[in-house]
Amino acid sequence: EDWFKWTPEGAAEGFSDAEIDDLIEQRKTARANKDFALSDKIRDDLAAQGIVLEDGAGDTSWKRG
Question: Is residue 8 part of a domain?
Answer without folding.
Answer: no
